[in-house]
UniProtKB/TrEMBL annotation:
Residues 54-126 form the Thioesterase domain. InterPro entries: Acyl-CoA_thioesterase_PaaI, HotDog_dom_sf, PaaD, PAAI_dom, Thioestr_dom. This is Phenylacetic acid degradation protein PaaD. GO terms for molecular function: acyl-CoA hydrolase activity. It comes from the Bacteria. Keywords: Hydrolase. The keyword Electron transport does not apply. Belongs to the thioesterase PaaI family. The lineage of its organism: Bacteria, Pseudomonadati, Pseudomonadota, Alphaproteobacteria, Hyphomicrobiales. It comes from Nitratireductor indicus C115. NCBIfam families: PaaD (TIGR02286), unchar_dom_1 (TIGR00369).
Length: 145
C-alpha cells in the first residue's frame, strides 16, 4: 500500500523524534508536520536565558534548526543541513512560548531551501532562519514494511 505524502511525513517525524535527544532535551514539542513543513515550539525557561536575561540566541537557533530538520526530512530521505543562517529581530524572554514554522521554498536535485519564522505567543517576530539542505544516503523507514 502506497502511503500518502502526509502519512510519509508523519512516519518520518516519528522515526526522527524517537532519536532526537537534543530537541527533546531543549524542551521542544513537534506541533505539526507535513510534506516540506514542520512547526515546533518551546517555552523559554530560566536555563535558556543568557547574561542579558533574554533567551540565548543559540537556543532560538536550535529551535529553528530542529523545525527545518523535520521539514526537510519529511520525504523519507535522510537530509542534513548544508548551511544555515539566522537573523534575530527581537529577544525571547523567560516565559515566552516560541514557535518555529518551517516551510519549503525549493527542492532541486539533492538540495533544498527552507525558511523558518520564529515568533512568540503573541505573533511577534523573534527571528528569521534560512536553511539549505542536502540529501544523503538512507531512509527513515522501509516503505514496503
Amino acid at each position: 500500500m502506497q502511503l500518502s505524502p502526509q502519512e510519509t511525513a508523519e512516519r518520518c517525524a516519528q522515526a526522527m523524534w524517537a532519536r532526537d535527544d537534543a530537541s527533546q532535551w531543549l524542551g521542544c514539542k513537534l506541533v505539526a508536520i507535513g510534506p516540506g513543513t514542520a512547526t515546533m515550539s518551546m517555552t523559554v525557561e530560566k536555563h535558556h536565558t543568557n547574561g542579558h536575561d533574554i533567551c540565548h540566541g543559540g537556543f532560538i537557533f536550535t529551535l529553528a534548526d530542529s523545525a527545518f530538520a523535520f521539514a526537510c526530512n519529511s520525504y523519507n530521505q535522510i537530509v542534513v543541513a548544508q548551511q544555515n543562517s539566522i537573523t534575530f529581530v527581537a529577544p525571547g524572554k523567560s516565559g515566552d512560548r516560541l514557535t518555529a514554522e518551517a516551510r519549503e521554498v525549493a527542492r532541486f536535485g539533492r538540495s533544498g531551501i527552507y525558511d523558518v519564522r520564529v515568533c512568540d505567543q503573541d505573533g511577534k517576530l523573534i527571528a528569521e532562519f534560512r536553511g539549505n539542505s542536502r540529501v544523503i544516503q538512507g531512509k527513515h523507514f522501509e516503505e514496503n514494511a
